[in-house]
Amino acid sequence: MKKTILLIFFIFFLFNKNLFSQDENKPFILNAEKIVNNHNESRVIATGNVEVIQGKEVLRADYLEFDKIKNKAFVKGNVSILDEEGVVYFADYAEVDKGFKNGLTKNISILFPDNSKMSASNGRRFKGTISRLKKALYSACDCDDPNKKPTWQIKASEVVHDSKRKKISYKNAFLEFLGFPVAYTPFYSHPDPSVKRQSGFLFPTYTSNSELGTIIKTPYYYALSPFKDLTIEPQYISGQRPLIYAQFRQRFVNGELNIESSFTNADRRTRVKTYSNKNRGHIFINGKFDQNDFWRYGFNVKRATDDTYLSRYMFQGATDRLHSDFFVEGFDNKNYFHITGIATQVQSSTYQSNKTPLVLPSINYNYQSEKTKVGFIDFNANLLSLTRRNGSDTRKISIQPSITYPFQDNFGNRFKIQAKTTMSAYMLSHVKRTNKNDYKGFKNRIHPELLLGWDLPLQKNNNESTFILKPQAALILAPNRGSNEDIPNEDSESFEFGETHLFNSSLYPGDDKLEKSNQRIDYGINFNVKSKSKKKITSDFFIGQSIRFRKNNNFGSKSGLDDQISDLVGRIGFGFGEHINMSYRFLVNKDALFSTRRDQLTISTNVFDSNLSLNYIYLEPTTGISDEREELNLSFAHNFNENYSFKYTLRDDMTSSGGLLGQKLSLSFDNECFNTEVGLNRSYYLDREIKPNDTFMIMLTFKTLGSFSTGRNISN
Hints:
13-stranded antiparallel β-sheet, 61% strand, mainly beta, single chain
């Protein structure tokens, strides 16, 4: 029969000094099938399923012998020790004292909480925190099968595990991959698997660029505190002077702060001799903070020394325009307040930087009431200031109250009456006018709108599906407005007529530009089918049109709205659970029903271990868009099995003057401890010193160790 003894007695008499912990007031329990206390020989012997428990520390063995004079415990046979960090030590034999502070083991292996493993022929433990292992192996791979080599492992003549510093150090270490040695280092260290963040060097990366040459990045990570860190990354560039990159991150109780920056001094050795002894760099600063449950604020700063730097040095975040802004935001159940300022730095020769406005400030306020006797009351107010180095300057204030009253009759007809008035005042300067001098002065206007809406949802159910047919219509009445070129169009420059614009009081998204004639009737019909089966099959169809009381010529000639009767707009949707989803939006020429002015197709599939995402858009030139647009974005991924996968992405400008914008092909392998991705990236972007290029990339990720990547430009 198994014996259990509460070792209060042993604390004062047998052990003298605590065996398992530095806390001598912490009792421990000894369990065993047989316990013999030999007072004459000053030793205690326990045999058969021996278990010693003290706090979170547990020792198990077949045999335990405690020498009271030497204050040591000798254990053998299926020895295992679980420490407070969740690390488990296994051995054939062990000598320990003073709560595992000092010890000797044979044929030891260590299991970390993340299933990483370490083994050695023998080991010593001293100072309670340091384990020194001889002829050791370490791997984060599944090593349960002794006949199977792990994907990778580290062999070393000596390994030191410092549990206090959470660090594993190697001497004379070989990295074996698939059983073959691939790398050697006389000294190497990394955080133990229980550590999520610790200061130290990260894996370097190697890339090659036709313009810059070889690029080697050697990042160093500083864990400044549990809430902030700093990464410093020197970059060696063979075709240029070195570059230094740094990133700082800090989390607060109420928010977070991120700072990213770089600096270099360019010289003449680049093939494109645009810069000579010029300081180049960038800085990104982002912060978001909650003041309380109702208010929050933030800022975002993005600046570069010049407009090609980020693209030339292949930084993430390189875009056509860099937006810097701040915001203050407040909200409750009925009120919303937002103030912002925006400054833009142009990064592409396509845009004119001197015509890009400085927005300072933009203030918006919205109030929406609960339903009252007269309906829902909305109130919107906006203050806007736009300043340009070359072009119009606008100061604008607008107020927009509205009342919406919905109701329904006994036959299921649903009605909506909406009355809205927009009152705007402008202070303008440098406004370009056709065959006139630039305008400078004050403008104001009041623009009322009335909308009468109707729809009738008709539903039919059977055992398999639910069918919903919903005809709808709206009558919109507003004053006729002529073209007022004294007021610049800032908020409705780009306009695409679609099904989402129908049944709105105004087709323009903003209020700077008004419709010349806005007395119209919008009508359409929507048909929806939902399956009741587990397959969750759905389909959706909508088609609609707008008819004006008189012709409106302030829309583009191919907008679909240049005649009294508009083109047909609609959408078609289909879904098959999570496996297939398709959406098609269209604008059909009313005079040629087989001719479309806009096609927008989106398809996503997840079948047969494959994922497909396709986005296609065709758009004729229309209001605010001078050129035809036709673009295809394609992404395809396939999992061959649980380890191997393939991915391909493509961007293509399909217009006559366009061409491929980018392609990327990659193959990857992934298991429990290792990931590798091999890819080919082709960029067709051309802008001054930025040239099209082909890059071959390899990324290796070793679990618990880190990632290593290398790339080479293979362009001619």
